[in-house]
Amino acid sequence: MDKNEIRARIKARKSLLSPQEKAQAARMVFEQLEQSAAFMLAERILLYHSLPDELSTHEFINKWADMKRFFLPRVNGVNLDILPYDRTKMALGSFHIEEPQGNDTVDVSEIELVVVPAVAYDRRGNRVGRGKGFYDRLLADTRATKVGVGYDFQLIDEDIPAERHDVAVDVVITESRRIVIKHTRQ
């Protein structure tokens, strides 16, 4: 199955979820993340600000914003800038995503944990994104722990085709599973 077929299949499955199912799944996934050593030890965490069709990060951000230093991405051409999260400095940006405003960008090397959105993941940590490569470019330059989060059905059994520039995650967390991937370092 190619990436476009995976995107179509996952989109169709997401459309069947009720608001209650979405909220429950987000709670279950982020409770698992909260219990992980990577989260407990990290001070500087890059999250995504979820779109309606993504596993919601909003409740999680609100819960931890005063205890952890959260950062969010902002689209800048073909790349992502990283800015501190401040609920008073958010505005609708590219692709109708709420993004942080300002000029106080930080380098990805300062981030200890990245919560990575994707359309789908496989058991090797490969991801299917939305197809623009924003996260692959960003993640290529980090040693931070990369955690993919999603609904159970976003963790697929078949291998996702990976190209040289694709960056895999280190952990995948869904409502009922937590998979730690052992990568070989090059």
The H-and-E topology, N to C, reads as: HHHEHEEEEEEEHEEE
The strand order across the widest sheet is 3-2-1-6-9-10-11
Which stretches are poorly predicted, pLDDT < 50 over at least 5 residues? none
Number of helices: 5
Strand content: 15-25%
Structural class: alpha/beta
Provide key terms for this protein.
seven-stranded mixed sheet, alpha/beta, two-stranded antiparallel ribbon, globular, 11 strands, 186 residues, 25% helix
Describe the structure in your own words.
The longest helix has 16 residues, at 19-34. This protein has five helices and eleven strands. Strand 4 and strand 5 (98-100) form a beta hairpin. It is globular. A seven-stranded mixed β-sheet has the order 3-2-1-6-9-10-11. The chain has helices at residues 3-14, 19-34, 37-41, 58-64, 134-139; strands at 44-46, 69-76, 79-84, 90-92, 98-100, 113-116, 120-121, 127-128, 145-149, 171-173, 178-180. The chain has 186 residues and is of the alpha/beta class. The chain starts with a helix and ends in a 6-residue tail after the last strand.
Question: What is this structure, in a nutshell?
Answer:
The protein is α/β, with parallel strands linked by helices and 186 residues long.
Protein topology:
Layout lengths: L2 H12 L4 H16 L2 H5 L2 E3 L11 H7 L4 E8 L2 E6 L5 E3 L5 E3 L12 E4 L3 E2 L5 E2 L5 H6 L5 E5 L21 E3 L4 E3 L6
Parallel strand pairs: 1-2, 1-6, 6-9, 9-10
Antiparallel strand pairs: 2-3, 4-5, 7-8, 10-11
